[in-house]
Amino acid sequence: SAPRMSVMISAIGVSYLLQNLSTYVTGGLAQAYPNIPWLRTEIEIGGITVRRLAILTPVLTILLVIALVIVIKMGMAMRAVAKDFDTAQLMGIRIDRVISITFVIGSFLAAVGSILYFSYIGQVSPTIGAMPGLKSFVAAVFGGIGSVPGAVIGSYIIGICETFIKSNQDISIFSNAFTFALLIIILLIKPNGLFGEKLKEKV
Predict the structure, then answer these.
(1) What CA–CA distance (Å, rounded) separates 30 from 20?
(2) Can you tell me the distance from the alpha carbon of 126 to that of 28, in angstroms, rounded to the nearest whole number?
């Protein structure tokens, strides 16, 4: 029954604890990620040679988002808990179970994302996921907290913009700065994000 902000801050604190603990145990040295030959196999499409991973990632992202939206639309208990904890509990919904299932779904999606990401990077270290995690948070804020399609669209916009920036050698060093500058601009112009719900003030 803690406030949501307290839960989020606690989660961030635990993440830093795990990162530093892993750094202490492993020495912080990067380790080679297991090679998955099928993902790294190169194919030719229209005279352009690309890895299967580059094709699979956006397609799999769209499919997973569609599946997640369907689950959320059908999961009345999830929607009730997200709307109002107390009312959902009074209606007999087991809040702890719903939250646990939600975390399982989120962890599964994170696992799929990490396999695709580290297969592309080729190595893993205790703190290598910090920046992608921050950028994911920026994408969620950009699209609108609570909006799954908004988070996906925000991610694609940030990813495409960063790709264009990195392709220019003169400004490629500012690719990370662009992401957080975009966050500041969005918070100033539209604090709820592109697809976020408007906050209603009760008088």
Answers:
(1) 14
(2) 6
CA 132 vs CA 41, 70, 117, 155, 174: distances in Å: 24, 26, 9, 11, 16
Give the containing element (helix H, strand E) for 70: helix 52-74
**Angle at CA 129, nearest 5°, toward 56 and 101?**
75
Q: How confident is the model at residue 202 (pLDDT cuts 50, 70, 90)?
A: low
Phi-psi region of 132 (alpha: psi -120 to 50; beta: other; left: phi over 0): alpha
Q: Please list, in sequence order, all residues whose beta carbon lies within 8 angstroms of the beta carbon of residue 60, skipping any fewer than 6 positions away.
A: 112, 116
Q: Rounded mean pLDDT of 48-58?
A: 75
**DSSP β-ladder status, 123-124 and 31-32:** antiparallel
Helices marked H in 27-51 — which ranges? 37-40
